Amino acid sequence: MSDICFQDIIAGINCLITISWLLIALFQLRGIKEQISIGVSNQAKDSLKIVLEIETQLNSRKLEFDKANKALAESDEKNNEILSAFVETTKESYFNAMDRLCFCIQKGYVDENEYRPEYRNMIHDTVKTFEASFGASSPYNHIKQINAKWQEN
Questions:
Q1: For residues 94 and 123, is the Cβ–Cβ distance under 8 A?
Q2: Is residue 110 helix, strand or coil?
Q3: Distinct helix (H) and strand (E) counts, the chain
Q4: How far apart are CA 52 and CA 40, in angstroms?
Q5: Which residue, 85, 61, 51, is CA-closest to 71?
Q6: CA atoms of 24 and 21, how far apart (whole Å)
Q7: Most-buried pick from 76, 102, 109, 121 (CB within 10 A)?
Q8: What is the pLDDT of residues 119-141, one digit of tens each?
Q9: Neighbours of 145 (CB within 10 A)
Q10: What mean pLDDT comes out for the span 21-50?
Q11: Distance between CA atoms of 96 and 142, rounded to whole angstroms?
Q12: Residues with Cβ < 8 Å from 65, sequence gap 6 or more?
């Protein structure tokens, strides 16, 4: 009878040890889940920061492009060649920033539904106004793809 009681005690201790390890494992899994959740949240915030920086660059480059066009329109004929080159440079810089933003939208770094109302017309108007820059050999594929997608729907 004492052997049975001793075996029961050992089995009970083993059971308590197993339960203890299970609780420790569950606690650690919960901690890992929280860390993953924090990591995902931080990654989303970092992506948003990058996109906001791209938007800032886009707006800044658009302003420079507009200033260059204004200067060209107000210049005399002697400065037109220099200013025309400057306009082309600022236009390319502006389109590059817009293309990066479109890339971020395509890759889902930001919610497309949030950006579409704000940028749909701007992108469409840019493509329409500067058709020669968005032909078959254009390097601005992301702009063209987003524009085509947003104009279909």
A1: no
A2: coil
A3: 4, 0
A4: 18
A5: 85
A6: 5
A7: 102
A8: 999 999 999 999 999 999 999 99
A9: 15
A10: 83
A11: 10
A12: 87, 90, 91, 93, 94
Is residue 120 a contact partner of residue 150, using CB atoms and an 8 Å limit? yes
Distance of alpha carbon 56 from alpha carbon 115, whole angstroms? 14
- Structure confidence by residue, pLDDT tens digits, 37-91: 887 778 778 877 888 888 899 999 999 999 999 998 888 877 788 889 999 999 9
Q: Which residue has the tokens 């005399």?
A: 76
Q: Are 114 and 108 in contact (CB under 8 A)?
A: no
**Terminal C-alpha separation, the chain:** 82
Assigned token pair, 148:
């085509």
Contact 95, 54 (CB under 8 A): no
Amino acid at 93: S
Longest distance between any two alpha carbons in the chain, whole Å: 114
Give CA separation, 107 vs 43, 110, 140, in Å: 14, 8, 15
Cα 52 to Cα 2: distance, rounded to the nearest angstrom: 75
Q: What are phi and psi of 132, to 5 degrees?
A: -65, -30
- Helices 141-152 & 112-129, crossing angle to 10 degrees? 110
Determine the length of the chain. Answer: 153
pLDDT of the residue at 2: 56
